[in-house]
Design a protein that fits this description.
With 129 residues, the protein is mainly α. The protein has one domain. The chain has 6 helices and no strands.
């Protein structure tokens, strides 16, 4: 069994390793591999976040336009698109748009994570008693 601090940081580690692979490794295969690693970390984060939500009743009352998974993956898709534009483009005029994608994705991620009411996992609750 993994220690709690390692378990909780795994999705962020996946996303950081994927971003590093996209940015620092040249080639399309490395960019695709990094994008998939970011996506894997994002999916783990989304699943954990949905499982820990304490405000599910509010979530059921909302009916958005986008399907659930499209809405949830949106900030990560922005970051992936920005990193891929940054790495794979040879045109210097694309770089500002890539930076905008990355900043908007990070902003949406921070806003969503700060708005969610998470409950502690059951194992953490018992260890604090």
């Amino acid at each position: 069994m993994l220690p709690n601090y390692l378990y909780e940081t795994l999705p962020y580690g996946y996303m950081t390793a994927g971003a590093a692979a996209v940015v620092f490794t040249p080639g399309y295969v490395a960019a695709l591999s990094g994008a998939l690693l970011i996506l894997a970390g994002a999916l783990v984060w989304i699943l954990r976040s949905e499982h820990r939500r304490g405000d599910r009743h509010k979530l059921q009352l909302k009916s958005g336009v986008l399907p659930f998974w499209v809405y949830e993956i949106q900030p990560f898709a922005y970051v992936i698109a920005g990193l891929l534009c940054w790495q794979l483009s040879n045109n210097q005029f694309v770089y500002p748009f890539a930076l905008i994608f990355i900043v908007v994705g990070a902003q949406v991620f921070v806003m969503r994570s700060s708005q969610r009411k998470h409950q502690l996992p059951q194992a953490q609750r018992m260890s604090h008693l």
